[in-house]
Amino acid sequence: MSLRLLGRTVATRTLARPSIGLKIRHLQSSVPDSSGFSGHDNIKNNTNLEILDLALIKVHDLGWSSTAVARAATELGYSSMAHGVAPDGAISLISHFMDRALDETCIEVDDQLHEFPDTSECLRFICTTRLKQTLPYVQRWPEAAAILAQPQNVPLAMRHLTNLSSQMWYLAGDKSTRIDWYARRSALAAVYLSTELFMCEDRSPNHQDTWRFLKQRFQDMDKAEHIGSKTVAFGEQFSRNLYNILASRGYVSH
Predict the structure, then answer these.
(1) pTM here?
(2) Taking Cα atoms as reference points, which of 177, 174, 172, 95 lies closest to residue 127?
(3) 71 Cα distance to chain centroid
(4) Smallest Cα–Cα separation from 166: which of 179, 155, 176?
(5) Cβ 224 vs Cβ 236: under 8 Å
(6) DSSP state, residue 8
(7) Residues 92-144: tens digit of each pLDDT
(8) What is the C-alpha separation between 31 and 49, in angstroms, rounded?
(9) pLDDT of residue 11
(10) DSSP 152
């Protein structure tokens, strides 16, 4: 199976592991590797992925921590100090999850996007699919958000959020290079982030309030889009509000 992501073709491979709501498939580039990596490097990489995948199951009990990675390594027969698996501790595990969740989202929506009549509906479906990847960890996600909001981790968090927004726009068919390119992606990133944080506190049946919240945010974004010249201002305003969103949830200090 192959999938087109931002101009590159990737092939999927399923890793054998217990199902936890996040279906694990390792995305590999279909372009021959010219980096000089040896077969040993590939084996090491696959071992690290196996450990991190199992560590995700441990998150429910051990949180987003190096302890979860060490426990997974031990259960798989490796040293709990397995070199290079999670060099930055919890943030490595969180980053691994976000990469996996985005890969899975792209795979899941790939053959369904033609069913939506407009870009907004398409984007909302992609956002919903990605949010559902976080649902199995929703009780622990505020912990991850707090770690991502630490000053040393903010650049990584923003890279993940920017990549997520760009991928969603690309999947929805937007390949423009218009002047509002950054504003549109900033606005979508803020819609996604605010909904994800809302979801962490949502106790409604089947998270119905979360999906209503997401729908309303898209309606707000669509209204700004139709205004035309105000799109950039809308995106910039949402971008400024990212910090305030985190602070209002108690993830960062005012």
Answers:
(1) 0.76
(2) 172
(3) 24
(4) 176
(5) no
(6) E
(7) 999 999 999 999 999 999 889 889 988 999 999 999 999 999 999 999 999 99
(8) 20
(9) 40
(10) G
For 44, 101, 136, 145, 169, the CA distances from 66, given in Å and listed in that order, are 19, 20, 20, 16, 34
CA nearest to 124, candidates 188, 193, 170, 208: 188
Q: Residue 17 has which token pair?
A: 């592991």
Phi-psi region of 173 (alpha: psi -120 to 50; beta: other; left: phi over 0): left
The two tokens of residue 199 are 């979801």
**Phi, psi for residue 8 in degrees, rounded to 5:** -120, 145
Helix or strand holding residue 26 (H, E): strand 25-29
**How many residues are recorded in the chain?**
254
Q: Which of 129, 131, 132, 99 is nearest to 111 (CA)?
A: 129
pLDDT for the residue numbered 83: 47
Q: Tell me what percent of the chain is helix, strand and coil, each rounded to the nearest 5.
A: 65, 5, 30
Crossing angle of the two packed helices 90-109 and 154-171, in degrees rounded to 10: 0
Query: Which residue in this structure is represented by tokens 């985190």?
Result: 246
Residue among 34, 21, 93, 100 at smallest CA distance from 64: 93
Pairing of strands 25-29, 2-5: unpaired
What is the structure's pLDDT at 182? 80
Mean pLDDT of 37-50: 66
Contact 141, 134 (CB under 8 A): yes
User: Minimum mean pLDDT among 128-142, 155-169, 201-215, 220-234: which range?
Assistant: 220-234
